[in-house]
Amino acid sequence: MHIIKFQITNFKCFSQITLHDLNDDINILTGVNNSGKTTILEALALWNECFNHLIFQVKRADNRLNLNEGDYRFYARPTETYFARESLISVKKPQYDSLFHNLTHEMIYLEVTLSKNQEQIRIGFGIRLVRRRVYVITLESKPFDYLKLNTFFKHFPHPIKIVYASSVAALNIIEAFETKPKVDHYVHSHQSMQVLRNRLYRLYYMVQESLLYPRFIRDLEYILLNNQEKIELSFLTEPQTDVHVIVNLKIGQQTTPLDIALLGSGTLQVIEILLSCYEETEDLGIILLDEPDSHIHRDIQKRLLNVLVKHADRKQVFLTTHNESLIRSANPTHLFHLLASPMGEYWPIVSSQYLPGPKIGLQPSRQIKILESLGSESALDYLNAIEADKLIIVEGHDDARYIQTILSNKHQIADNAPQVMFWAMGGLDEIIKHIETYKHFFSHIKNKTSLWDKTVLVFDKDRLTQTHRNNLMVALPAKLGISVYIWAAYTIESTLLIEIDQFVTLLDKYARNLEKKRQFTWHDLQQIVQDEISHLIAQKKQDINSVQSRTALQDYLLNRRAKLESHLKLKIKSVMPGSEAELSPKTTAETLDALERGELYTVATKNDVDTLIKKSLARLNITLSTEIDYYFIELLELAKYSPWFAEWDNMIQTLNIY
Fold first, then answer.
1. Same domain for 456 and 385?
2. What is the dihedral of CA 501, 502, 507, 513, to 10 degrees?
3. pTM for this predicted structure
4. What is the pLDDT of residue 377?
5. What span, in angstroms and rounded, lies between the C-alpha atoms of 53 and 48?
6. Does residue 268 lie in a domain region?
C-alpha cells in the first residue's frame, strides 16, 4: 500500500496543489526556500492526525453505510469532531489561524489517494476554525465507501503510521527509560531524538527474533563506512534496575566505545533516519524527512538514498532538500520540483518532457533544471558525468531520451539505480571518425577511475546484417577497451518488432489510453498488426530487389567498411567478409532470408515503425497525429512493468549497467 496522490487546499502557503504519481519508495521534494517543501510534510502528518482523531469502531451494524458490527468508520457528529488547537501536534502554528492560506479561515482540505493491489481509495478531511482555540475536523470524501475502507486496512485503529524524523540531531546527554507508549508519543510528536537510545534499546532487545537489529547494523555500516569497518553498539543498563539508558558505540578497531552523545551530528542524523525505517509498521509506514542532508557528507547521502529505497517494501519516504549533491545523485523518478507558487500540479520530473539536448555532446540530465533554479550552473552536468556509474555514447539525443526511459523503467523492477549520463555523437559516421579521440581525452579525466573506464557505446544496426553486427560486437570492444552494444534491430524504434506479441500488448495499452470506449480486443489488434507487417514485408522485398536499392546498399557497405578500416584500423574482412563484388549480394540474400522468416525488425526504419503504428490504430478509428519522436517516449513509459522486451535486457546486460 502507498500514497499515489496528495491534494492540499488552503493550507499555509498553498491555495491548491496536487502531487501526482507518488512513488511507493521515495519521493524527494525540491525547490527554493519558502517553496512549500516542509509544508507538504506537515500536511501529510496533519492528514494522518485527522485520520487517527476521527476513526473509531462501531458497536452495531449499519446497512446504510455498509458497516458490520466491529467495523471502523469516521466520527461525524460535531461533538466528536471538535479539537482544541493545542491537541494538534503535526504542524507549527504560532497563531490559531496560521494553518489557513492567507489567514482566510476557509476550510483546509487534505485528500490522500491510496493504492493497494491495483485498488484505490480516496480519503479527504476538512479542517475549519470554529473559534480561536477550537478546530472542527470532518470527513469530506462523500459518499464514502466504508466497505472498501474495512477491506483496505487490516490493522485498525491506527493502520497508518507516520514518523517525522528530526531534521537536526541534538541528543540529550541523559535519557530516561520510557515505556513503549511514551516512546511512540515522542515519535508521533516530532521529538524522536528525545528517545533515540530507547528506540535503539527496543530494536535490540524487543525484536531480536525478527533479525531486524542485525539488518539495522549492516545498513548503518554501509551508510557510514561503505562496509569498510564494523560497528558495535553496547547497552549497559537494564530497565528493571536502572533509571537511564546508556548506549555506547564502537567503530572498527577503536579501543574505547563512546557514548553516542559524543558522536558527530552527521552520524546521529543517520542513526535517527535509519531508525525511522525500522519503526514497527502496520498497513502503511510513512517517513517524513525534512532536509536530512544538513549534517551529512555527500557520499553518505548517496548511500543513505540507496538504503531508503531498499526499505520501500515497508516504508514510503517523503524527503525535502535543496542540496545539489543529493539531487544529482537521486533518480529523476524520485524528484518533485516545487515552483514557490500557491497553486500547481506536480509530477516526478521524469514525467516531464525530456530536455532537448544538443545534437553533439553531453546530454543534460533531468536534474539540471532543478539545479539551475537553485542557482547552480549547468556545468554540474560535467561533474555528473565524472561521478556517474556509466557514460553512454549514443548516435543522437533521441537515443539518449529513449535509453534513459528504458533504464528508468528497469529501475522500477530492479534493486538499484545506476547514475547514467549520455554523450551524443551526431551519427554513426561521427562515432567511427572520432571515437579514438574521445578515448584518449576521456582516459585523462579521472576521479577514482577514468571517464573512459565508465564509458560504453550503443548504436543502431542500420543496414548491416546480423553477421556484420555480431562481428563488430567482438571487434569494437577489443579495439576500444569498452563494452559495445549494437541493437539487433535496424533502429532502436524497431526493437519493438522483435517480439510481436509484446508489441501488440504495448500498442493495446497505448490504444486503450487514447480511446477509453474501445470496441476491439487484443486479438483484433494482433490480426491488424500482423496484416500491416505482412504488407510492409512485401513492400520491403520489392524495394530490396530493385536496381536502385542494390546500388545504394553497395555504396553504403563500401563506405562503412572503408571508414571502419581507415579510422579504427579494424581487420575489415573479418568484420564484413567478402570481396567488393560479393558484399552487396550476400547482404541482400541474408536480408531477404530474414524477411522470409517474418523478421521485419531487421530492415524496419523509424518511419516504417511510425507507419505501422499509425495505420494499425487508424483501422481501429484512432488517429495518432504526433510524430514518433514524441509518442515513442510515451510507448516506452507504458512498458514500465509489462510488456518488457528481451532486447532491452540484452543491451543492459551486455553493457553491465545493472
1. yes
2. 120
3. 0.65
4. 47
5. 9
6. no
| pLDDT, tens digit, 9 for 90 and up, residues 346-358 | 988 876 544 455 5
pLDDT tens digit sequence for 398-455:
898 899 888 888 765 445 567 888 888 889 999 999 999 889 888 888 777 888 999 9
Q: Indicate whether 347 and 358 sit together in one domain.
A: no
The DSSP secondary-structure symbol of 253 reads T
State the residue for C-alpha cell 567482438: 474
- pLDDT at residue 379 above 50? no
151 and 11 in one domain? yes
Domain of 222?
170-263
Q: Whose CA is closest to 72, among 58, 59, 54, 52?
A: 58
Q: pLDDT tens digit string along 307-331?
A: 887 776 678 889 898 877 777 767 7
Q: Are residues 189 and 85 in the same domain?
A: no
Sequential DSSP letters for 402-418: HHHHHHHHHHHTSS---
Q: For 201-215, how does the pLDDT look when each residue is reduced to its tens digit (9 = 90+)?
A: 888 876 555 678 888
Rg over CA atoms, the chain = 30
Choosing from 453, 486, 519, the residue where a domain stops is 486
List of E strands, 193-327: 231-235, 247-251, 258-259, 284-290, 315-320
| Cβ(316)–Cβ(2) below 8 Å | yes
Q: CA angle at residue 625 from 620 to 626, to 5 degrees?
A: 125
Q: Determine whether 516 is exposed, middle or buried from the number of CB atoms within 10 Å of its CB (0-12, 13-18, 19+).
A: exposed
- Is residue 211 one of the residues assigned to a domain? yes
